[in-house]
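Researcher: Here's my situation. A collaborator sent me these components and asked whether they could plausibly form a single complex. I don't have experimental data yet, so a predicted model of the whole assembly would be a useful starting point for our discussion.
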Amino acid sequence: MMASSYNAKEEDGHHSGASSHGGAGAVKSKKPDNTAFKQQRLPAWQPILTAGTVLPAFFVIGLIFIPIGIGLFVSSNNIKEFEIDYTGVGESSPCHSCAKNFSWNSTTPCLCSVDFTLEQPFESNVFMYYGLSNFYQNHRRYVKSRDDSQLNGDRSALTSPSKECEPYRTSEGLPIAPCGAIANSLFNDTLELYHIDANGTSNSIPLVKKGIAWWTDKHVKFRNPGGNGNLTVAFQGTNKPVNWRRPVYELDPSDSENNGFINEDFIVWMRTAALPTFRKLYRIIQKKPSSTPTLPSGKYVLNITYNYPVLSFDGRKRMILSTISWMGGKNPFLGIAYITVGSICFFLGVVLLIIHHKYDTRNNSADIPN
Amino acid sequence: MFFSPPVFLFISIHLSLRQCVGEEIWVDSRTVYIGHKEPPPGAEAYIPQRYPDNRIVSSKYTFWNFIPKNLFEQFRRIANFYFLVIFLVQLIIDTPTSPVTSGLPLFFVITVTAIKQGYEDWLRHKADCSINECPVDVVQRGKVVRTQSHKLRVGDIVVVREDETFPCDLILLSSSRHDGTCYVTTTSLDGESSHKVPGQEVDSLHATIECEQPQPDLYKFVGRINIYKDKEEPVARPLGAENLLLRGATLKNTHHIYGTVAVYTGMETKMALNYQSKSQKRSAVEKSMNAFLIVYLCILISKAVINTVLKYAWQWSPDRDEPWYNHRTENERQRHVVIRAFTDFLAFMVLFNYIIPVSMYVTVEMQKFLGSYFITWDEEMFDEELGEGAQVNTSDLNEELGQVEYVFTDKTGTLTENNMEFIECCVDGNVYIPHEHEDLFFRALCLCHTVQVKEEETVDGIKRGIHQGRPTSFYISSSPDEVALVEGMKRGLFLFARLELKPLKKINEHEKVSPSLCQDCLPFRFELLHVLNFDSVRRRMSVIVKSSSGEYLLFCKGADSSIFPRVVSGKVEQVKARVEQNAVEGLRTLCVAYKRLSHSEYEEACHHLTTAKLALQDREQRLAQAYDIIERDFVLLGATAVEDRLQEKAADTIESLHKAGMKVWVLTGDKMETAAATCYASKLFRRSTQILELTKKRTEEQSLHDVLFELNRTVLRQRSISGYEIMLSVDCLDFGLIIDGATLSAVLKPNQEGAGPGNYREIFLEICRNCSAVLCCRMAPLQKAQIVKLIKASKEHPITLAIGDGANDVSMILEAHVGIGIMGKEGRQAARNSDYAIPKFKHLKKMLLVHGHYYYIRIAELVQYFFYKNVCFIFPQFLYQFFCGFSQQPLYDTAYLTLYNISFTSLPILLYSLVEQHVTMETLKKDPSLYRDIAKNSLLRWPVFLYWTCLGVFDAVIFFFGAYFLFDNTTFTSNGQMFGNWTFGTLVFTVLVFTVTLKLALDTHHWTWINHFVIWGSLLFYVIFSLLWGGIIWPFLNYQRMYYVFMQMLSSGPAWLSIILLITVSLLPDVIKKVLCRTMCPTISSCCALSSPFSLLAAP
């Protein structure tokens, strides 16, 4: 039965309510609010990307980027950088024998020295880096193989390190401190720099090892267990990493403040690099108070205590000396990129201007007959 | 109890019933003992059935099964299941990212959904509870006992008072009204009100009711009541839908009804059965989205496979696999290489799984749900008269509103007001306009016929009129035509009708139903004997009356096509001519005929009707047969004409839809001429439109085959001639097709000859494709759905929309991609079954052109952007594998991996997809042709998808290699200290977040304060979060890799410079593409956006 309600038109137009619509009040409440949001009429800014509006932006970007790029490029070029590979791959290279005869068990360190010449003097502070190639510090198994709680001085983590540290978690039944693959493979070559002056005497260049790690790492993230008291006691019941020669509390015999987990070389190493070829800050050569350059041009000798094997995985070791500007080390890429992008924007601006002009007139002429 | 008839009596009844209904299967029906009075004992044939109690359970869960059941329901969704698998893989094997990264978002999504569903279910529980515990009066052992609703049993006698809701499906036994009827509104069911007829008197009644088992059709009920009286043959009476009071309906205008008996209870009531959800419609956007998902799944798998293969190729030398500084654990070493490879594959899958983001589903769902509120909130779609605005029944199809290619519309009530006005009548070929007082005799005949019917159905309306002390009356009828006729008569016979109302009512009090007519205050009284109800197949209705002089008369009224074949005498020619003329003028015509019945004829008719009405099964069919036998050999009296005015702005709407590239089809049951006139009036056909006719009249002259081919040729010729000048003038190309139901079914019939040259269906579709407007007249409801199906299945698979207001439109509303119901005068059925309901046809314009358009561009951008931002996100990780020995090392920190999609980039796109307006609403309304810009899913086609993906890959390459070359072997800081891999990742991530957000900012055309707030807020949130995340040693984390990483990065000048550079480079191609597209090949909407009063510099 298709029944329905239908009210014939009434003379006074009053609603009968026979079909139960409710009174006027009900009608009112059902009516949607006339708010700008509900009616989708919020005031709005309506920008449109057209040739006309984008053109100036392109020119402005071009005009800003090109000078920045030039500035970056120039300052990058002013940075002096010297790099030397001391891996000892070639027969003739001084560290060849050390590299060849490397054994984990040898007790006497293998020494070698590399001569090099700086053509130009290095002004201001000079930063000394060691660089490794083909070393996958960013391998997942490697990256996670650490225990941050242990490194933060947590006592329970010291005696029972995280499982992530496997297989570098325990040795000889004792927990390893610091545990994990990263700590285990700490870079342990010692580099010393000597300047050979005109007389042929070699002067040791003072290398500062303070300030090579992030301040926050050194002071907050890395903490020794039980503060900086007697570290030998604090680390009792733990074992040194397998590949280490000395326990962690004897990393720096010369400076007691630089031992344990807060050893700066250790902290620098623990910050895993992003790419398989990387460099890490090793020492800082502070500028001299006098006006003489920090590293005058001339002959130098790099003395290496060769402890770190890289040939097994076809790796390379380098020593890098570099000055630094406000924008960091030598990196022409950023400057070139800025100049390129700036020029492209400028060029596009010109092209768009032409297109805009051409189409605009065509559109206008097409509009007229309509 | 007090009544125990002999055993044999009962058996004989049973046998007689069996004979009466033939070979029916008794399991299909149920027997209800009224008042639980046992039937005569020993009746094995009545197997006592177990009925559920009257508890309504609309809730899905109980307290105990909520968690398992809800989880099961949620994980049945393929996306959730996928993320669950990823999560489990992360839990089981050693994967690069912690299970938190996928577990947290999944947990978030699952929890939010569970809370929402739980809340909804709690509301349902509460509603159920209040319904189940509401008090009900039941007659027990002669006393009225108050009990709770859920304790009702089948067979209970229930007392219902005015304004109370029926607690279950009831059969009306007696009413407090004198005529024994009651009046109910079923607004909560279908928005209709109707008038119910009683079954029986209640006092000391001993009876059983047999009825069919519960079924969901609200308008169908077949049953029979058997009344046992002492030592007498039981009396059987038919019960139909008019005796059934549905649960959920409310009793009106009746003080109380007694002795209603529960037949269906609890979950078996028709209301409960109708809760079943309709089949799900899926939008075109959703389909493309799923296609894109599959592509991304393939990309994901191939990425994982490539990396796994490369990993093992690279690891071939043991120096690389296990250098001295990086050994495996013993466990790992002992694992078989195949297992290891498989684990690696899974690990890569996990690493890259973010390319299919869990948040996309949530965002899309939220966008649809929240976005649909804009439709309900729209003030312009609010109708003051109805007091209702647009209604959204499903939010899944919002964007489909922007994709409509075919609009199928009903005529009556949709295009037209369905507000009929009586125009004229024609008796024996003479035309009378109301207000003329002549020839009262003929008018009285005409009047008599209609008013009788009216009177029977308008009791309530009249009563109301009197109550309010006003002389005018309301006529309530299932057909507005009838109301118009009665109104017209009233106008013509103003005095009599008004004067007679009260006495008329009083007279009626004695006889059950016997309306009377008066002329000059002399009432003619007729006794109404039978009503042969109207149905859309017969297209006519009849009444059998006995006049005061004892004559039996049968009056019939119906469509001309259904009356004329049955007429034997009368001035057929004149009336026919008049009817056709009226039809051309767009008036609805009805023909009136009568026949005199002798007593024996009457008896025979009665017999036919009662046997048919008593049948439990196939009752409809039997009734139709009976009607067919009775309604024969008429004498034609005349015809009436009723005008149905076009709805406000219907023509404007149709014109807009045409301009928007939609093809509008009118499907109507009306006569061709009437419908065609409406089509002209509504500008569906214009003066210039060339009309092609495919009607029965034509196919009678030529064969269908020839007609089809001829039309096809005409269409094709015209197209080839003017093919090159299409753009110059649209008018000369305009075709309109008119087809009628009979021809349509011939066309759709499978070709019997088999050898016929091609399918008619194809040719018909070809013709239709070239017609801008099609009118299908004389359509049966099912044919409407057939047409929609036909177009849907044609080879372009166009998106169809059906709009209608009546029950006869429901089938096409359900069939079409988008179904729109008009909250019309023919009830709520269409609105209830539709996806969207609007008050008036004119609202369709805004619905499609504005809301549909907006929703489409919004969701299209949402989908594309989501894939884009996840390509940008994951592709650098893929590239990074080449530099970390394929070790699945993630580039970003866990927190970034987790929060990227949840919080850093989620809100801007959600807000964009809610408020974006690429052109203003006014422009969209003013220029409907803008709709063509987005036709055929244009923003989600493969080239567009490819563009977005390529853009994502390009950006990802820029991010990664930009950072790579900047990081390459150099210092970033002015104090010489070095950065590690996490700084590298953070740099890439920072560029990523900024680029992706700014890309959205570039796409935003409509910057409200919300957009500003969300876009800049998200970026700010990212920075603040990073500062916080890296600023503290988090005690609950077992790693502190991010400690001060972000701050150290910000303290370096080159990092800032490279971030700016990389963002600029990443955005550059998109900007150039935008500018070039706008300049070289502008779309219409972009032109409109330009010419809009806002300019770049216009302040908000």
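Model: Some features of this prediction you could bring to your collaborator: The longest helix of chain B spans residues 843-881. Chain B has a mean pLDDT of 76.
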